[in-house]
Structure formats: structure tokens, C-alpha cells
Amino acid sequence: MKTLDSYNFSGKRALIRVDFNVPLNSKFEITDDTRMKATLPTISKILKDGGSCVLMSHLGRPKGGPEDKYSLKHLVGPLSIMLGVSVKFADDCIGDSAKEMADSLQPGEVLLLENLRFYKEEEKGDVAFAEKLSKLGDVYVNDAFGTAHRAHASTAVIAQFFTDKVCGYVMQAELDNAQRVLDNADRPFTAIMGGAKISDKILIIEKLLDSVDNLIIGGGMSYTFTKAQGGNIGKSLLEADKQELALELLEKAKAKGVQVYLPVDNVISDGFSNDANRQIVATGEIPDDWEGLDIGPETIALFSDVLSKSKTILWNGPMGVFEFPNFAIGTNAIADVVVKATEDNGAFSLIGGGDSASAVNNAGYGDRVSYVSTGGGALLEYMEGKVLPGVAALD
């Protein structure tokens, strides 16, 4: 795999797959620019070499054609400020106008293409569409790790039309950090798994049981474990058909000598809103009309003790409904202790994208952990041992 530092882009036009799938508010203002900032070093390196950049990305989930709210034109201003370059914009990602703008690019210039997903061919991995995109650059650079697990036209299929295929800095860092956790983890190694569903995390949990010393389980998925062990969970989130699986995972962990930590108390609510009544109860003792929305103080103390002694930490998934401030206390507390373990104890901490990354970044901790992944789904699939089409295409 060619890396960015091993390639000189002087006089080259780089066609770069970036992940600019950023959240926008009702005024089309970016509310989290983490993914855009992550790609800046890759773009800057190419420009510094004397190359030019054609950037392609998707944004949101448009339904069958162009939609103004999903147009990448909303990113042109902020991106120009970030790069210190007046970014040009093509109102299409293929066609004559996009080709003419790409062909006329001078060294040091940047062109942003319109949303790839305005064409259904992108997600279908259409070869003809990929070939049209490939005409816009001399060298292909993939820096969109967050979409590397999808065999889309711009992430995997397009590579066959290039002799020179290069791995961007984001992609390289994601792979290096994931590999470090998988192959070279310092002990004790603790994985924190949260989020709503066990079904989303079965494969990664089973894979991690071969390498971790401790497994912490929180968030919505923990209630299925509690129910499976005979506890009362009220109206809490439950995957009824996964209770047997939950018990099997606990048995596998025990057989492999992995210590599993589940919540010992929960913050519960009589309604799914920030302002609902709440109280703290022991795990497994939730009244019928109440639901668990966060881990309680005793659980925070238990999890914190384990994490403070850990040398490698992988975290994927929040501890509760962190979108509600009153039920974000557990998630924020875990973020705090992961930062302390990193800064005070020299632990290596990898935050596994998605909601975990949002929680850490929202708390202002993004630069105080070892690495925050930009690709939740892609990272999990890579760590599960699956081949990522976007990575394989660069080999």
C-alpha cells in the first residue's frame, strides 16, 4: 500500500475520497467539523508538494437525486477558511462541467465536487460511474476510513482505473491505531462496549474476548444482560431474542479468563425525556413503568476503578442516553476517567467512532485521548477481522 509520505504529488491532480459527512443544523451550519479537520493534513501535504486536489464525498442520505439540504456547497465556505485556500465548487460530481473544472485546476488549487450520493450508482458500486469519476484525477487517494467498509463506486470500485493509489493520513492512522490495539496492546487491556443493541456488537465482543483482560458493558445493551440473568428492567431497552446469546457471551468470557463488568445500579426515568422524573435503583430492580437511561454512581465508581488501572482502553458506545444532559452523567464520567488514565497513567486510549467520538469531542476531550476514530462501523468491522473493500482496493 502506497502511503502519502512515499509519494510526490508535484504536478499531479489528486482525486481524494474524503469523508465530509458532517452534521448540519437548520441554517446549514456545520455542528461538528471533526471529519473535515481530520483530512486537512492530507490535503495540505498534496498542495505543499505542488499538486492540486479534487475532493469527493457523500453527505447524508439523499433519496433519489439532488436535495439542497444535502448539497456539499454548504461546506465550501468553512473548508476555504480551514485550508486558507479559496475552494472551487462543481455543481455535479461527473459530467462536462466537473471535468472542465478539474482539468483547469492549477497546482495549489482545490475543487470540491457535489454529493456523490445524488447518483444511486455510487452506493451500487457501478463500474461505469466509477470510471467517470476516475477521469477527474491522475492519482487516487482514499482518506475516507468511515466509508471503507462499503464497496461503493468512489471507495473501492474506482481504484481499478488508477496506476497510482495512495492511502491518506486519516486512513493510515485509523489502520495503525486499530492494529496497535489488536496486536500490541499493553496490559491490562479493557474494552468498554455501550450503545443500544447487543446485535450490533456481537462479532466485536466475541473477537475481543480473545485479547482483552476486562470487558465493561453499559448502555442500552446492558439491560438485555440483566433480564437474561433474571433481573427486572421495567420498560428499558430489551432485545428479547438475544438473552440466550448474552448468557453465552458471559460463559465464553469466563472460559477465556476475561473479567466482565456490568452495571450495579442505574439511573431510571418514568419517561423518555430529559425532564422526566428520575431515581437511582440497584440493577435488576427497575419498576415496571420505569426505564433505565444511564449508569448509576456505584457503577461509575466500579468502571472507573477498572479503567484507572488499565494500560490499553478501547471504547465504543455511550453508557446512557447522552443526548439528554440529565442522563449523560455516566458517559461523561467515563470520558473523564479515560482521559485521566491516558494523561496520568500513560494508557493508550482508542475511542471507536460514532456516539463515543461525539461524547468525547462534545466534552472537549478529543485531543486528550490517544486517538478518536472517525469511522465507527468501519473500525468495528476491521477489528472483527473483516476485509474492508476501501482498504483492499489500495493494496
TrEMBL record:
Record-linked Gene3D superfamilies: Phosphoglycerate kinase, N-terminal domain (3.40.50.1260)
Q: What is one term from the GO cellular component aspect held by the record?
A: cytosol
- A Pfam family for this UniProt protein? PGK
- The answer, when asked if Phosphoprotein is one of the entry's keywords, is no
In what pathway does it function? Carbohydrate degradation; glycolysis; pyruvate from D-glyceraldehyde 3-phosphate: step 2/5
What's its catalytic activity? (2R)-3-phosphoglycerate + ATP = (2R)-3-phospho-glyceroyl phosphate + ADP
Q: Which GO terms describe its biological process?
A: gluconeogenesis; glycolytic process
InterPro entries assigned to the protein according to its UniProt record, in alphabetical order: Phosphoglycerate_kinase (IPR001576), Phosphoglycerate_kinase_N (IPR015824), Phosphoglycerate_kinase_sf (IPR036043)
Residues that bind ATP = K201, G292, E323, G353, G354, D355, S356
* Binding-site list for substrate: D19, F20, N21, R35, H58, L59, G60, R61, R117, R150
Q: Taking the first listed entry, what is the main subcellular location of this protein, grouped into a coarse class?
A: cytoplasm
Q: Does the keyword Nucleotide-binding apply?
A: yes
Subcellular location per the Swiss-Prot or TrEMBL entry: Cytoplasm
Q: What is its EC number?
A: 2.7.2.3
- Per UniProt, (2R)-3-phosphoglycerate binds at R35, R117, R150
GO molecular function terms noted in the UniProt entry: ADP binding; ATP binding; phosphoglycerate kinase activity
Q: Which UniProt keywords apply?
A: ATP-binding, Cytoplasm, Glycolysis, Kinase, Nucleotide-binding, Transferase
Sequence similarity: Belongs to the phosphoglycerate kinase family.
Q: How does it assemble?
A: Monomer.
What name appears for this protein in its UniProt entry? Phosphoglycerate kinase
Protein species of origin: Larkinella punicea
